[in-house]
Amino acid sequence: MISFRLNLLAAIGSLILLLIIIELIRRKYLRERYALIWIGTGTFFLLMSLRVEILYRNIGMDGILFALERLVFLGVLSLVLIALILSVITSRLPKK
User: Fold this and answer.
1) If we measure between CA atoms, which residue out of 33, 48, 39 comes closest to residue 20?
2) Residue 79 falls in which region: left (phi positive, over 0), alpha (psi -120 to 50) or beta
3) How many CB atoms lie within 10 A of CB 46?
4) Is-contact 2 67, C-beta < 8 A?
5) Measured distance CA(10)–CA(94) in Å, rounded
6) Tens digits of pLDDT across the chain (96 residues)
7) Among 3, 31, 44, 52, whose Cα sits 20 to 30 Å from the Cα of 85?
8) How far is it, in rounded angstroms, from Cα 30 to Cα 19?
9) Angle, CA 58 vertex, CA 43 and CA 78 arms, to 5°
10) pTM for the whole thing?
């Protein structure tokens, strides 16, 4: 099992990420439209850090044997999806 300290660190990290996103929105450095992607990601990882048993469901069924491996995989997958979404958004920007 993932230790309590690691859960606490992950939860604190997720909360810090969410607070930074909210502050960036408040200061108008980040549009709400783009912040939804990051808020969703931060909320997802906060949920995963608070409800670790979700990571332990079906261990081995998907080829991932450890909860930490699953968490890293989900983190990389979410960053790839964010990069894809932002690429689509920038592709739609008008050309000069």
Assistant:
1) 39
2) alpha
3) 18
4) yes
5) 39
6) 557 787 788 889 889 989 998 999 899 888 887 788 888 888 888 888 888 777 777 676 777 777 777 778 888 888 898 888 888 888 888 877
7) 52
8) 13
9) 30
10) 0.69
Angle between helices 67-91 and 32-50 (to 10 degrees): 170
User: Exposed/middle/buried for 14, CB within 10 Å: 0-12, 13-18, 19+?
Assistant: buried
Contact 33, 21 (CB under 8 A): no
Task: Measure CA of the first residue to CA of the last residue in the chain; give whole Å.
Answer: 54
Distance (Å, whole) CA 71 – CA 84? 20
